[in-house]
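Page 42, continued from yesterday. The earlier attempt failed because a stray header line got pasted into the input along with the sequence. Redoing it now with the clean sequence only.
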Amino acid sequence: MKFSHSTLFDLYRNAGHFRFTQPQVDGIEQLLTFVEADPGLTDVRWAAYLLATVRHECADRWQPIEEFGKPEYFQRYDPGTRVGKVLGNTKPGDGARYKGRGYVQLTGRANYRQFGHRLSLDLEENPELALDPAVSYRIASLGMRQGLFTGKALGHYLHGSITDYHNARRIINGVDRAAAIATYAAKMQQGLQHAQTS
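This time it went through. Structure tokens are written below.
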């Protein structure tokens, strides 16, 4: 898929859907470039939902971010806690070391190990790599397409005549903020379809 970036930005500015700062524009431009080069995104709705998810998960910054919180906040992810066990954290300090990072907030030693293996990167030893935009995009795309975050994938909710943006939130986090993200996705789909060149 290819898009006219300028057409997309003009459409959203003129419709009043989004008002972008320059850092946001830069982030969206980079994401669109990643989307255009991604052979795994075969449906414009998948691209729309991925972008809508990034908008929400990154607090509208459109850039990979670290999970917000003071050091003591991340103790809830430490070994011995219920969440820490689910995340595969095994050593003291793992909660903070493997805090959420990226476009979709990759969290936990086991997830860093899994995605590192799939991407042929040592994310477990170098978790900050998840903040690199290209790496972060690969994590988001692979995880959302293959259902690696929750067992639910883009193809479960967006295929053929089915467009269920609300329940697509289950790919990442239950139905938390599902309605808002569904609205972002629907508007993004309209814009991408209007701006699509191939």
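Notes: The mean pLDDT is 95.
Reminder to self: strip header lines before submitting.
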